[in-house]
Amino acid sequence: MENRTTRTWQIAAYVLYGFLCTILLYFTSRENFIQLIAIYAGMFALYFLLARSSERTNYLGEIIIAGILLRLIATFALPNLTDDHFRFLWDGQLVTHGFNPYASIPEQVRAEGYFGISTLDDHLFNSLNSAQYISIYPPIAQAIYAIGALIGGSNWDIQILVIKIILLAFECGTIFLLPKVLKQLHINVGHAAWYILNPLIIVELSGNMHLESTMVFFSLLSIYYFNKNNLWLSAISFGLAIATKLWPLMLMPLLFRQIGFKQTMRYSVIAGVTAIIFLLPMLIEFSKITGSFNLYFQQFEFNASIFYIGKYFFDKDVNYEAFSNMRGSLPFIAAFLILVFSAVYKKQYWYAGMLIAFSIYLLLATTVHPWYLAPLILLSVLSGLRYPILWSLLIYLSYYTYITPAYIENMTFVWIEYVMVIGFAAYELIHSPMIESKIITSRLPFKI
């Protein structure tokens, strides 16, 4: 009787989750913050109940089916929380007509009559949020956007749908691969629900077509082959993850404690060569890409933590040089801390180590969008640390910024987000049952 009752409420929860997902993706704009946050909170509550319940059951097939159905709902919705997709369409048209998207900024393309491309026009140009920047999306992304342009032509909706279907395929790959990795780690496959059903993953990756879905898949594939002791395929997969987004590079130093210096060097060469091959069209225009990245790091700021504290003490209107030095030093500080951490973390807590390395980077970043949390949510499943799950709820407070065209952040919400996330992370790292010791310092997944 109790099992039947449990199954009844779970099915009802899945149906309600799908209904709320539909309302959020099809009938909610990012400017409508109250509706957005209320529906997302409802989705998260249902997700939390379902994921906790799945930890104690083996209804893997049900979790997979629900995850795919929720993503299908998201796939057929137009992006509603971002305008990045207009750049995807723009780049895809350039590639299909034989132009390098890393060679010219959109403003230049427009000035030259859109290079004679009939599917590029003022309507699409005026929708771009980065017309003054060279594209920073890697060649793997450009290939996906080009397929969308080839099939969709001048029809934006079809282009978006094609791109989303390709990204859905990567997400499905992750959904089917994750339980296999959990079995390798002797973890109940029900824990896969923490990623598969996570509302941020569904809304941001499938709904708003961010490329993290490909990086997450290749990263997980790399972990899968690593656990099978197939370092060649693991390194190739890792190189593909880097070629999709450069973030995984920061995890490379953690390998030294896992496989030693010689094997790490060999692994790095294989991964590096793979990444370079797939990044070659981008590297050809290296000087222009570097300038675009510099502009990104110098001008963009959103939902940051430590950077905002530094910004408070180094007022750029009073002493711009000190502010600029502070801002420019953050990536180097992050790299240094990750290197130090890589030298002292405990070998048996590799997945927790990767999660902490990513967290260090994001805490020192000037821009932290919700979809940046995708790899952290995956690593939360593998490591047992759940603070990224809390973060995936609280980061939606950052959408308050879009209430008005002025894009003014609510710093109270930013403080609430980071104080709660950092506080819970500290609690987990000290008290997590995954670390057996009565000495507080030895409970951490690194040596002191």
**Tally of contiguous helical segments:** 20
In terms of DSSP E residues, the strand content is under 5%
Per DSSP E runs of 2 or more residues, the count of β-strands stands at 0
Low-confidence spans: pLDDT under 50, at least 5 residues? 433-448
What structural category characterises the helix and strand content? mainly alpha
Instruction: Sketch the topology as an H/E string, one letter per element.
Output: HHHHHHHHHHHHHHHHHHHH
Helix content: 55-70%
The major beta sheet can be summarized as: none
Give me the Rg, rounded.
22 Å
The rough form would be described as globular
Q: Average pLDDT, to the nearest integer?
A: 92
End-to-end distance: 51 Å
Characterise this structure.
The chain is mainly alpha-helical and 448 residues long. It has a domain at 286-448. The chain has helices spanning 2-27, 33-55, 60-75, 85-96, 106-111, 122-125, 139-152, 156-184, 193-196, 199-207, 212-227, 231-244, 256-283, 286-299, 306-313, 320-344, 350-363, 374-383, 387-394, 411-431. Helix 1 packs antiparallel against helix 2, helix 1 (2-27) runs parallel beside helix 3 and helix 3 (60-75) crosses helix 10 (199-207).
